[in-house]
Amino acid sequence: MRLMAGSRSRWWAQGALCAVICLMAQGSPSAQKIDPKARSIDDRDFLPVDKAAVSIVSDQQMDFGQIADRNGSVVLGLADAIVSDPQFIHYGGTPYSAICTITGDPSTAVDVSISTAGSNGLSLSNFTSSEGNIPLVAATLDPSGELVLTIGATLTIDDAQASVGAGQTVSYTITTIYN
After folding, report:
1. For the chain, what are the domain ranges?
2. pLDDT, tens digit (0-9, with 9 covering 90-100), for 120-163
3. What architecture is domain 55-178?
């Protein structure tokens, strides 16, 4: 077969395009090399083991007791007590520190953070726990896979926005992940 003028360059262009497409489909040559020491996918001890899902259960909600509708802040400590009340706005009721249980893989590290959104003139901040100030980094679950945290915080009241009456709430979300 005889090539006509101009056909040869078209043939080379088509051949080069085919080579590029074939290389793209196969990946780079180094990615295709097989390590003779590598284990096959059937060797189960080679595959990573899935961790148990980390979970949190609230054992006791945080409660600051009775607070006056005035500007100020109170600090709830870790032993079910108000430990700071510089504006004298706590006037009764029984305060409770929050208690939660985190479960997951035994003896593994978790990170714990708390987020909150102020509402009705109430806001929470400066969270502390039985393991240290929150956020916690690399808190370790015990050999049974549990970590019980007692949590305290600072409650700040803005009387211009605060609602009067019992049962006022401010919510917070505890998040934990494996470290």
Report:
1. 55-178
2. 889 999 999 999 999 999 999 999 999 999 999 999 999 888 87
3. Sandwich (2.60)
Burial, 76: exposed, middle or buried (Cβ in 10 Å; 0-12, 13-18, 19+)? buried
Q: What's CA 110's distance to the chain center, in Å?
A: 9
> Cβ–Cβ contacts within 10 Å for residue 157, how many?
23
pLDDT, one tens digit per residue, over 74-128 is: 999 999 999 999 999 998 899 999 999 999 999 999 999 999 987 788 999 999 9
Give dist(CA 65, CA 166) in Å, integer: 10
41-47 long-range contacts (CB < 8 A, ≥24 apart) are none
Give Cα separations from 14 to 26, 115, 119 (angstroms): 18, 60, 68
Question: Whole-model pTM?
Answer: 0.70
Q: Where are the alpha helices (DSSP H) in the chain?
A: 7-26
Per DSSP, the residues of 31-82 read: GG---TTSPPTT-GGGSPPPPPPPEEEEEE--B--EE-SSSEEEEE-SSSSE
Is the sign of the CA dihedral 155, 156, 162, 164 positive or negative?
A: positive
Give the chain's radius of gyration (CA, Å).
31
